[in-house]
């Protein structure tokens, strides 16, 4: 004869699985977005925030300029790291 599982035990097991997979999901996205170069993540957040707050008429010019500046910043940062290794 089989005994029934305790409902509180199965609920705890289910919540521990959810917590485990949620933590793995957050770690994956953190590593994917931030990774080795957190400055690119910060620059992206700044560009998006400025893009949201600017007026529609000047948005294209401002965003394209910021993207160009961040690209130059990233390339110079990468070259600096290449010279150090």
Could you write a compact summary of the structure shown?
The protein contains three helices and no strands.
How does this structure look, described?
It is a single chain. With 85 residues, the protein is mostly helical. The protein folds into two domains: 33 residues, no CATH class; 52 residues. The longest helix has 29 residues. The protein is elongated, with a radius of gyration of 23 Å. The N and C termini lie far apart (67 Å).
Oligomer designation: single chain
Calculate Rg over CA atoms: 23 Å
Overall tally of structural domains: 2
Strand content: under 5%
- The tally of beta strands, per DSSP, is 0
* Biggest sheet architecture: none
- What's the N-to-C terminus distance? 67 Å
Counted by DSSP, the helix tally is 3
Task: Determine the structural class based on helices, strands and strand pairing.
Answer: mainly alpha
User: What is the helical fraction, as a range of percent?
Assistant: over 70%
| Mean pLDDT rating | 80
Q: Can you tell me the residue ranges where pLDDT is under 50 for at least 5 consecutive residues? A: none
Output the helix-strand order: HHH
Shape: elongated
Layout of secondary structure:
Blueprint (H helix, E strand, L loop, with lengths): L6 H27 L4 H16 L2 H29 L1
Helix pairs in contact: 2-3
Task: List the defining traits of the structure above.
2 domains; 3 helices; mainly alpha; single chain; 85 residues
């Amino acid at each position: 004869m089989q005994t029934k599982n305790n409902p509180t035990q199965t609920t705890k097991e289910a919540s521990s699985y959810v917590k485990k997979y949620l933590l793995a999901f957050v770690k994956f996205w953190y590593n994917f977005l931030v990774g080795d170069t957190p400055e690119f993540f910060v620059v992206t957040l700044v560009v998006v925030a400025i893009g949201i707050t600017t007026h529609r008429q000047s948005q294209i010019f401002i965003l394209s300029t910021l993207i160009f500046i961040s690209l130059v910043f990233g390339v110079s940062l990468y070259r600096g790291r290449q010279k150090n290794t």
